[in-house]
Design a protein that fits this description.
It is a single chain. With 155 residues, the protein is an alpha/beta fold. The protein is globular. Strands 5-4-3-6-7 form a five-stranded mixed sheet. A two-stranded antiparallel ribbon has the order 1-2. The chain starts with 10 loop residues before the first strand and ends with a helix.
Length: 155
């Protein structure tokens, strides 16, 4: 998926087991969908907590972060609770959504098939911005926030 592409609507369970549709998440504003390899791992925790720490900034521009990985609902729930994340974590156990977005790698051993990528998605389901870095954990939230601010200024 690239900037300008329209994503299909999808539904996955969140950390509470509640089904969430992309269109419903977009109802109140843009979504910053960030894919991460494994809940509770060092880099993923750092990335997720940085999104949490910027929650007020995202809310101020009408956007919300949504995390997504191949972890099951229980692991997502533990991750969200242990770090008081406060935003949805979606369970993509079959990697269908990661594959659609190009955030999946078949070759990596140990089950870490989800690639660290972030997509800013506008309310029309079009991708506004894409960020990919496996090691710049804080950059995803910072760059996504800048993209949402730019989107809001252009509106």
């Amino acid at each position: 998926m690239n900037t300008g592409d329209q994503v299909s609507d999808f539904e996955l369970k969140d950390e509470t087991g509640t089904p969430r549709r992309l269109t419903a998440l977009l109802a109140d504003g843009p979504v910053v969908l960030f894919f991460y390899p494994m809940a509770s791992s060092g880099g993923c925790t750092r990335e997720a907590c940085h999104f949490r720490d910027l929650a007020a900034d995202f809310a101020a521009v009408g956007a919300q972060p949504v995390g997504i990985s191949g972890d099951g609902v229980t692991k997502q729930s533990i991750f969200a609770t242990n770090h008081s994340l406060g935003y949805p974590l979606l369970s993509d156990e079959g990697h269908a959504v990661a594959k659609e977005f190009g955030a999946w790698r078949w070759w990596l051993p140990g089950g870490l098939h989800t690639r660290r990528q972030t997509f800013v998605i506008g309310q029309d389901r079009r991708i506004v911005a894409v960020f990919a870095s496996e090691s710049r954990f804080d950059a995803h939230a910072d760059e996504a926030l800048a993209a949402v601010k730019k989107l809001r200024a252009a509106a």
